[in-house]
Amino acid sequence: MVFSSVSFLVFFLPALLVSYYLVPRRFREARNAVLLAFSLAFYACGGVRYLALLILSIAINYLCGLLASDAHRAGVRRAAVVLACVLGLGLLGWFKYAGFFARIVNDLGVAIPIPHIALPIGISFFTFQGLSYVIDVARGDAACQRNPLRVALYVALFPQLVAGPIVRYTTVEREIGARDESLDEFTAGLVRFLFGLAKKMLLANAMGELTDSVYGMPQLSASTAWIGAIAYTFQIYFDFSAYSDMAIGLGRMFGFHFLENFNYPYVSASVTEFWRRWHISLSSWFRDYLYIPLGGSRCGRVRQLRNLAVVWLLTGLWHGASWNFIAWGAWFCVLLIGEKFLYGAALERSPAVLRHVYTMLAVVISWVFFRAPTMSAALAFLRAMCGGGAGWYSADSVYYLREYLPELLICPVACLPVRDALRGMLERRSGRAAEAVLILAPKLLALALLGLSYMKLVSGSFNPFIYFQF
Asked: Helix, strand, coil proportions of the chain in percent (round to 5)?
């Protein structure tokens, strides 16, 4: 089940809202139980046979969290963290990477069976989220939660369960026990959800159709390949940021405040800045739980280079078990090392337009590795972008530009902080008119976008979420 589906919008969410808010606010644990039951049902809709895996992951992190608490000596706490990592990452490794590494072994000349294992939805997200809880308890950054149902709710809470953002336990620790639901908070969450739904239905899906069409062509001209690469650049941003918007909005409707996961990454003037703005919960997870423990930048240059290489190798692998994801991670690793040690100072002195062009060119190229099904397909697509395919121009380019012109014009604008600029302008104005626009305009626009989104939903069948595969 996805947020942008009739089954979720018409059946699941209304049933949850009615069940949740019929329970009096003073019965907090009963409301938590309703949320947990619906969250487990939500996950079961995407693969009931893997519900036991989610429950096993919850049990591992709950028990390891107990052992990692300050009630035990340091050796026990360290052992609990190791155990949580071995078991959690072991499950992730088996389901996500067993087939990939078995194929590598076979390519090296050693014949072993290649397992064909379906990937459980959201395993990368809930594995990392559970590990962060155990590690934070062991570090003393979070209190050990002795109520297993609260740990289960933290890991399985449906808005962020299958595609993030990766929520730290410290972010929602208080709200699991005592939330402050209100009509204003609910309305703000609903508006955020509807804006995310519109991003998904009106922009991401259109760019996804264009991307799939271009990537499915046997021969590509440079102009068509660039249109496809740019379309995917828009698709992955609006698809993933839309999911994060909907997750944050849904959380707020039930009294939870998740941290932002995107901060207009396509306005960045360097790759370093891009990764401060893109998928913030993942990049901060790798920073806090891998890069800094390895020594971060507080060590010699050789170790710092090693740390960066390890982080970006694992970041690539986290996204998928294939060589093109490893190449994607390596691409960003090289660029970040270059900015840190080689040309970063010169880049900062360059004109802003040049820095932005460099950054977006690097990002567009990176998404080719991300979107292509194989490494050879990615290299072939890049060759086509450089004119090595079916020439520099084809009539397909004109067709695609005409067919998707409205979306291709709206997408660049929607990547900019226009909403923030308008809000700031209205906040600086005094008077009832500006105040009324500030309050009413987002709500009215959200309702209009809901109508457009629903029309798209009932009239089309293209509705994937990219990050469900991770």
From this structure: 75, 0, 25
Concerning whether 319 is annotated as a catalytic residue, the answer is yes
> Residue 258: its pLDDT value, please?
95
CA distances from 376 to 228, 313, 362, 379 (A): 17, 19, 19, 5
Residues across the chain: 470
Q: What are phi and psi of 15, to 5 degrees?
A: -65, -40
Question: Cα–Cα distance between 407 and 305 in angstroms, integer?
Answer: 41
Got the DSSP string for 40-102? HHHHHHTTGGGHHHHHHHHHHHHHHHHHTSTTS-HHHHHHHHHHHHHHHHHHHHHHHHHHHHH
Q: Which tokens belong to 412? A: 């660049």
Cα separation of 127 and 244, whole Å? Answer: 18
Residues 6+ apart with CB under 8 A from 345: none
What CA dihedral angle connects 461, 462, 468 and 470, to 10 degrees?
140
- The catalytically annotated residue of 72, 116, 279, 319 is 319
DSSP output for 116-154: --PPPTTHHHHHHHHHHHHHHHHHTSS-----HHHHHHH
Residue from 186, 232, 283, 238 nearest 413 by CA: 238
Which 3 state secondary structure label does DSSP give 157?
A: coil
Q: How far apart are CA 112 and CA 101, in angstroms?
A: 10
220, two tokens: 């590509």
Number of H helices, E strands in the chain: 23, 0
From CA 397, how far away is CA 8, in angstroms rounded?
Answer: 37
CA angle 142, 44, 259 (to 5 degrees): 35
Residue-wise pLDDT for 229-242, tens only, equals 999 999 999 999 99
Please confirm whether the linkage preceding 165 is cis (ω < 30° from 0): yes
Residue 165 in this model has a pLDDT that exceeds 60: yes
d(CA 347, CA 361): 14
Of the candidates 214, 211, 212, which has an alpha carbon nearest to the alpha carbon of residue 384? 214
What pLDDT is recorded for position 463? Answer: 58
Q: Is the pLDDT of residue 409 over 60?
A: yes
Q: Which long-range contacts (CB under 8 A, 24 or more apart) does 82-85 make?
A: 84/60, 84/130, 84/131, 84/134, 84/135, 85/131
What is the DSSP secondary structure assignment for residue 289, as one 8-state letter? I
Mean pLDDT, the chain, rounded, equals 92
CA-CA distance, 65 to 85, in Å (whole number)?
Answer: 12
Note the helical H segments in 320-431.
323-337, 344-349, 352-371, 375-385, 395-403, 405-414, 418-428
Query: Tokens standing for 334?
Result: 């090289």
Closest CA to 243 of 187, 195, 209: 195
Can you tell me the distance from the alpha carbon of 2 to that of 24, in angstroms, rounded to the nearest whole number? Answer: 29
